[in-house]
Specification:
The protein is mainly α. The protein has 25 helices and no strands. The chain starts with a helix and ends in a 22-residue tail after the last helix.
């Protein structure tokens, strides 16, 4: 049945009812519409709830009113949302409402909208003890599941979201199933279950379309971006972030700043500082109480000048301020960014320390997919040079395994033909690495490799990788036979 029809029936039943009964019915109408309607559709419900509260004030009607007012205000980006929601939580805690399903859902909705996901866990025993219809249990379990995942327990959150989606499917509640499945897809991606994440994304899209869910459709691009990132598809990830930032996706989870800062970081490290600065211009830092608030000002300064030792040190120091459960994933991400940055600059000790810190953070939260990506960077940092046996001098992030590349890629006069960065790229590409492998080895993007290769080919007067390898071949090496390709050091044929 259409959620709009369900909501209309609740509202019709509220006509002529006593204030407490009418308040409960209006809240149930809100719940029915919350996954399918845009935020402006909630405002008439809020106006009606205000009239009900004025007609008969009680702790119950006040709690319901504060929940509706706070949620509607938050979705509409109004300043008084948190105050209403805080009042709702205080009213719930001050009264014996733990056996009332409607008021339990009000308080749970309030703490999640307040971006305090770690508090969702305290509602799990209450929900377990309540005698609930399957659809109501699915809806509440979905909220608790996303709260656990958001607060850094991806293993438990994933299990709870699976159960919520299963229950919703059994009772034919497609809107709840769509919401739980969309959150599950992002959780799957972070956990490294990439095929399952893709399947759940497709299911969530289809379910959202079947019920016309504006709410679920709104945050699907964020879930798709998480999967692209976990797959290592940085181009698709950046494109999706462009969409996410443009549409302000993630506002209810407090992630709109993180998305924008991530996109600005991507452009800054790809050599587009003006684009990065433009993304941050005119956007205020959130208060320190916001999830991630303690690190965002320092992250901004680093994005604007990533080569500044002071900005790098300040960002590293700000990690100590990320102590809340909801900040665990962000702390691991910042450590990863800084570790890779130190690796690119050849500071292997700092790189190893921060990359290991990121690994620890992702392992603690159950983010196995993210851990796999960081481990790749960590292993490359300590990998032996190509063509050497184990126990040889470890690879340096600031010098590829090609000997003295500045001398190898020089004019006959001995004058270097390339800049230091170009020589490093030339060395690893001439040694047989693909663009993607070279990017991983040097801790840069594939586009940076492509940019340097264009300059390298032009400066050296070579047309392809074969000619580049021939340029760097030692003078004592025999000339290759016509039509054959020299086998790079460390690679085998056959």
């Amino acid at each position: 049945m259409s959620t709009e029809i369900v909501a209309e029936r609740f509202l019709t039943a509220a006509d002529g009812a006593d204030p407490e009964t009418a308040a409960r019915l209006v809240f149930q109408a809100f719940v029915a519409l919350s996954r399918t309607a845009d935020s402006h559709r909630m405002l008439p419900l809020l106006a009606r709830m205000r009239r009900i509260r004025d007609a008969g004030r009680s702790a119950r009607t006040e709690l319901i009113y504060c929940t509706l007012a706070g949620t509607a205000a938050t979705r509409a980006r109004l300043a008084d949302g948190p105050e209403h929601l805080d009042n709702a939580v205080r009213l719930f805690d001050a009264n014996a409402f733990k056996d009332d399903p409607v008021l339990v859902e009000c308080a749970l909705t309030a703490v999640m909208t307040l971006m305090r996901p770690h508090e969702a866990r305290r509602f799990a025993p209450l929900v377990e003890a309540l005698d609930l219809a399957p659809v109501d249990r699915a809806r509440l379990l979905a909220l608790i599941g996303v709260g656990d995942a958001w607060a850094g327990n991806l293993v438990r959150g994933q299990a709870e979201l699976r159960e919520a989606a299963r229950l919703a499917a059994l009772c034919g509640s497609l809107d709840v199933q769509a919401e739980a499945t969309s959150w599950l897809a992002k959780c799957d991606a972070l956990r490294g279950d990439l095929d399952l994440a893709a399947t759940h994304l497709d299911q969530a899209r289809e379910l959202a379309a079947r019920v016309g869910s504006a709410w679920v459709a709104r945050h699907l691009p964020e879930c798709t971006a998480a999967l692209a990132f976990a797959r290592g598809d940085r181009d698709a990830w950046a494109g999706l972030l462009e969409l996410v930032v443009a549409t302000d996706t993630g506002v209810t989870a407090g992630l709109q700043h993180e998305h924008r800062w991530e996109l600005a970081t991507h452009h800054a490290l790809a050599g587009r500082p003006a684009v990065a600065a433009g993304l941050l211009a005119g956007v205020d830092d959130p208060p320190a109480s916001w999830p991630g608030g303690p690190v965002l000002p320092a992250w901004r300064a680093w994005i604007l000048d990533p080569d500044s030792p002071a900005a790098t040190a300040t960002l590293a120091a700000s990690l100590d301020g990320l102590t809340r459960p909801a900040e665990q994933l962000l702390a691991a991400r910042i450590a990863w960014l800084l570790g890779a940055h130190h690796g690119r600059a050849g500071r292997r000790g700092e790189a190893a320390r921060l990359l290991e810190q990121a690994c620890t953070g992702y392992a603690r939260t159950g983010a196995a997919g993210m851990l796999t990506l960081v481990l790749t960077d960590l292993r490359l940092l300590g990998a032996p040079p190509a063509g050497t046996t184990s126990g040889a001098e470890p690879i340096r992030a600031d010098r590829p395994p090609a000997g003295d590349e500045m001398a190898v890629f020089a004019y006959p006069t001995g004058e270097p033909a390339l800049t230091g960065a170009e020589a490093r790229v030339a060395a690893v590409v001439a040694n047989g690495l693909s663009n993607r492998e070279a990017a991983q080895r040097l801790f840069v993007s594939v586009k940076t490799i492509e940019f340097h290769l264009g300059n390298i080919f032009r400066k050296l007067g070579v047309r392809n990788r074969t000619e580049l390898a021939a340029w760097r071949r030692p003078a004592t090496s025999p000339e290759p036979e016509s039509g054959t390709v020299p086998v790079p050091a460390g690679r085998r044929t056959g």
